[in-house]
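Morning, I've got a small favour to ask if you have a moment. It would help a lot if you went through both lines with me. Thanks so much in advance, here it is.

***
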Amino acid sequence: MSDEAGSSPAVRLRGIEKRFPGVVANHDVDLDVLPGTVHAIVGENGAGKSTLMKILYGVQSPDGGTIEVEGRAVTLGSPADAIELGIGMVFQHFQLADNHTVTENVVLGAEKLHGIGAAASRRIQEISDAYGFGLDPDQLVEELGVGQRQRVEILKVLYRGARIIILDEPTAVLVPQEVDALFANLRGLKAEGITLVFISHKLDEVLAIADAITIVRRGATVATVTPAETTARDLAELMVGAELPSPTTSESTVTDEVVLAVEGVSLMAGERPLLQDLDLRIHRGEVLGIAGVEGNGQTELVELLMGMRKPDTGSIRVGDRDVTRWSTRRRRESGIGYIPEDRHRHGLLLDSPLWENRVLGHQTRKPSARGPWIDRRGARADTERIVERFGVRTPSVDTTARALSGGNQQKFIIGREMSGDPVLLLAAHPTRGVDVGAQAAIWEDIREARRQGLAVLLVSADLDELIGLSDTIQVILRGRLVGAFDPRDVTPQSLGSAMTGATTEVR
């Protein structure tokens, strides 16, 4: 893709190379991002997108190649260097302090610009008004919705003078209405000459917002195209060599056998209710989807079912056993699998090899244990099986979990949790941040387990995924289940309305 008339790239990368022990993350990467455009970068997990953006933001140094910013060759040794050059990055996981105001979050680390008082608040209000963010500088972050928090993150980099903004999976936790609002904000930024680098796995969104799309595959750039000359299926094929997957499940496998019964469950945080009088049932062979804007109780529900929290009222039964007061370990031993929403915090020991991560949470049962002892040989052999069966890309089972891409970490966790014939799977955002190839594999794993009789609680911010995989969808709002929907006749827009409290109808 050539430069527009008279316009040199805001960012130009040539021949970028980056190697890690046993892995070539980037090799001979070229990228031109024109000023005042939205340039999307797509690719499967492990393709090198994140490494490339970390190089552009100064988090990592390239082993070869050159970087030009606004026509000038630069060396980026740290994020501070990138910020000095007008480059900002908005990470997928928000980096905000809930108990501080918008102003306090924005000025943290940038106090020298406008101080921490009235002048800072005025500047923040000016930026918010200029781009239609609708933020109150004095409001506590804990009072903001997910879409508003996303805007606070963007405001942080604008406050520091960013002219080039990298957005890493910015729509991962947004409902359709919030995505529309974000895209309106991004178009406003573009109209003011801000350059946006947009990383996403949601190809329909990429086609809707991008001016140009670069596809990265196995560490190298393979093509740069415009939305007018491509389709989602074309992009998927360029990324992974396969068609765009669909989560659609056609046949019903739901039986009359109740695997999980939750009755009258409430959970408090001091005087504040986190969950209120919940009732739900999941049957053998059923996927029950939970839809909700992040922060409305779905995290607490999963942790409560896993035994990480204890309810203040109500009961939880798995089969014919009351597990309300059981420990997490005992619940695991009873056949509950757990795919956590935060794989780094609750799913992996990042600096331990994969075979030790196979043992994690399964240390009392075969093949990870022999009597009271860890069975190293059994764990290693089963890790080899998981790597092969679930397509985990790794040099060996001795590789640390940290060295794997996010998608391969997720496939490994799913392989581990599907092992041992669980009766109930708690799956929180199982495909968040994974590419279309890994997404297709994970969807098929869930469908196959469902066919074999597994009961699944599926929490997801991907409404197409919920609609495609679930037999029933429940909406959670402020800790209450407020609506049940039939996936056969619900739309992402109607679900989004229920999730935000605009409607409470049951269909």
Notes: Residues 1-6 have pLDDT under 50 and may be disordered. The CA atoms of residues 249 and 447 lie 7 Å apart. Residues 176-191 form the longest helix (16 residues). The chain is about 35% helix and 25% strand.
